[in-house]
Design a protein that fits this description.
The protein has one domain: ph1033 like fold (Roll), CATH 3.10.590. It is built from 5 helices and 6 strands. By secondary structure, it is α+β, with helices and mostly antiparallel strands. Strands 2-5-4-3-1-6 form a 6-stranded mixed beta sheet. Strand 3 and strand 4 form a beta hairpin. The structure holds a DNA duplex.
Length: 136
Amino acid sequence: MNRWLLKSEPDVYSWAQLVAEGETVWNGVRNNAARLNLRAMKVGDEAFFYHSNIGKEVVGICRISREAYPDPTDESGKWVAVSVQPVRKLPQPVTLAAMKAEPALADFQLIRQSRLSVVPVRDAEWELVLRMAGSV
DNA sequence: GCCAACGTTGGC
DNA sequence: GCCAACGTTGGC
C-alpha cells in the first residue's frame, strides 16, 4: 500500500467537511506531477489530509475510495480526480513547522517541493508523523 | 528548442 | 503583502 498527502486550503475544503460528507471527489488538480501521483493511487491507499495556508498542519487520515477517473470539472478530459473518505482525525495536528524541525523529514517531499498539492509519503515518514501526532 | 515574461501556490 | 519556487506561455 502506498501513502500520500493531500493538501487543501481549509476555507475551500476542510477536514471537517470531509467528515461531514463521508466522501468527496478530489478534483481541480492541474499540475502534472500531482496528476502522476493521483494516477498512481490505489483503492485502500491512505493519505494525510493537510490544511495549507490556514493551519499549515496535517489534521487527519483519509483513504482512497476510487482510483483515478476523469476530473468532472475538467472539460479537456486531460486531468483526473480520485475519491477519498475520512478514516480518522489525528490526536494532535502536526504542524509544518514541527515537520521542518525534524531532521528525519528533511527529504519529505512536502518540505522539498512546497507547491505540490499531491505528494507521496514514504513509510518511515508516515510512521514518524503519526508518532508526532500522538498516534501509534 | 530556448528563454524571458508571467501566473500561481503557499509559506512567512 | 511580499517573495521564492516553479510551471506555463509565447516570441524568436
